[in-house]
Design goal:
single chain, mainly alpha, rod-shaped
């Protein structure tokens, strides 16, 4: 592992964030539709099956919300990483430019 360099393209990291964001929104939309259909179907269930369906539906809704939240956390982390990589690159470029400026005036 020694000597290996980490190479990161901030634009690629940002695009990954966009892809995860789309996946999160798709999950929320698709699961929201499924939850709505389940809610509409609940009225046709009676007795213990109705109670069981209501409990399962609540768990599914909670699970969907948790998955969505986790995906959004990943989106935010990826966007933050992309921003930090871009900032580091910009600062490094400025430092190199500043260090090389005196060399240029010496004809090097």
């Amino acid at each position: 592992m020694g000597g290996e360099r980490l190479r990161v393209d901030p634009a690629e990291v940002s695009m990954a964030a966009d892809h995860v964001d789309v996946a999160a929104e798709t999950l929320r939309s698709d699961h929201g539709s499924a939850h709505a259909r389940i809610a509409a179907a609940k009225s046709g269930w009676i007795g213990t099956s109705s109670t069981a369906l209501a409990a399962a539906a609540t768990k599914w809704e909670d699970d969907s919300a948790a998955h969505y939240s986790e995906l959004i956390d990943h989106v935010e982390a990826l966007r933050s990483a992309a921003s930090m990589y871009a900032s580091t690159d910009s600062q490094s470029k400025a430092a190199i430019d500043a260090a090389s400026s005196p060399l240029g005036s010496m004809g090097l």
